[in-house]
Amino acid sequence: MSHRSSLAIAAAFAALLIGGLVAPLSAQAPARRASQSEIPRTPDGRPDLQGNWSNATITPIQRPEGQPPVLSSAEVAQIEGNRASRIEEAAAPTDPDRAAPPVGGDGSSGAAGGVGGYNYFWIDAGDRVAIVNGQARSSLIMDPESGRRPPLTQEAQRRMSDARASAPRFGQYDNPENRPMAERCILSFGSNLGPPMLPNYFYNNNYTIVQTADHVMIMTEMVHDVRVIRLGDRKPLPAHIRPYGGDSWGRWVGDTLVVETTNIHPDQGLQGIAPTEALRVLERFTRVDANKLNYEFTVIDPSTYTQPWGGEVPYNRLDAQVYEYACHEGNYALANVLSGARAEERRAAQAGPAQPR
Predict the structure, then answer these.
(1) Does 48 fall in a domain?
(2) What is the pLDDT of residues 33-55, one digit of tens each?
(3) What DSSP string runs through 51-114?
């Protein structure tokens, strides 16, 4: 965790792929592999994935329209320069003599609904373009070639339409049961926990990996989520048991840890799309050198997407501590949030029905 984000806390077909019947991403664009002497190894000879890592980047998950898959050095310089300017401007000290924000916020984006949450000093969203295999990528998704998530199937579109039509009349702030998962500190913002484990473009995109001969543990800094990946012969959970982070099993294929995950919790959406029982995610962890870990992912759900899709994310060694993310379900702020909503309802009732114009 960076100094900036630590202050904020103190003050988010797989069987076919494994069998090789569908070409994995690494076969489409071979990653640069370190020599045997460059890869740190555990006592049992496996590549050592342990340590603290960060996947923070300004490269978006989906490719912006009109950009090529690989950026030129001039394009990288411009993008990173613009980012540096934005960070410098947004992190400027707050004027202590500023007026109070208007009731309900000023309409701007940002934490606390534009009424004065974190300023940019507290944010650590990344400031570098993702470099994979020596290439400056314009998107983390590389398959399909468009760099964008494939279209939804008609079945998935129908599910989403039905979900909207049957949405409860209560809002997210009306009762404890409807509070969003991230706000309740159950799941990280975005898809930090995964799978796939993607940056959230906000802060705390850091991980700690601990590895043994029969397990790999990945602790996500955001909302202190933990994945435990069992190694060896797969013994899947029953279909009705769907934990947060899913049911993950891994095996070594050469110097790459290949992980297959199923049984992902139904509330653990990916880019706003709820998982189905058919969803499988394939991940590949490859130690590139002493300071980099290459993370590849493929999402397979024929009932939701018209084709499998995936990409690559560089994980860079974090030479810093990962601190506790001091957020937990049921913290005392919940009573204040709900009482605020009730106060709004009382004011609305006292005001009476809106008068027709």
Answers:
(1) yes
(2) 555 558 899 999 999 999 999 99
(3) EEEE---SS-SSPPTT--SB--HHHHHHHHHHHHHHHHHHTSPPPTTPPPPPTT--S--SGGGG
